[in-house]
Amino acid sequence: MAGAQLVAWITVKLSEFAFEKGEPKRYRTDTGAYRTFCDSCGTSLTYENDERPDEIDITTGSLDDPEHFPPNRDVFPEEKLSWVRLVDGGS
User: In whole angstroms, what is the distance from residue 36 CA to residue 48 CA?
Assistant: First the structure.
C-alpha cells in the first residue's frame, strides 16, 4: 500500500533490473507479494508478485528521470476517487 489515491508505476523484466547502490528493505505482504522501501526515508520503490515472476514494478517517482515514463493506462479505475482524472481521459 502506498497510502495515496494513485501511484505511477513502470513494469520491466526482472532480469533487466538492478538497484545501482544500496539494498532496500524488503517486505512480504499477506498476499504473498514483495514490496521494497528505501532504508533511509521509507520511499516505496518496487513491487513483485508471484503471478508475474519475470516482472518487477517500480514506482515512477523514485526514478532519477521520471519524466521519461508518463502513465499510459489505468489500473483499477473503478477504485478511483471522484476527482481523479484517468489517463485515457475518462472521469
Answer: 9
Report how far residue 15's alpha carbon sits from residue 33's, in angstroms, rounded to the nearest whole number: 18
Within 8 A by CB and 6+ apart from 39, the residues are 22, 23, 24, 25
Count Cβ neighbours within 10 Å for each residue of 16-36 and write b for 16 or more, e otherwise. Answer: eeeeeeeebeeeeeeeeeebb
64: Cβ contacts below 8 Å, ≥ 6 apart: none
DSSP SS3 for 6? coil
pTM over 0.85: no
Q: What are the tens digits of pLDDT across the range 28-46?
A: 999 889 999 999 999 999 9
Sequence-separated (6 or more) residues with CB below 8 Å from residue 26: 34, 35, 36
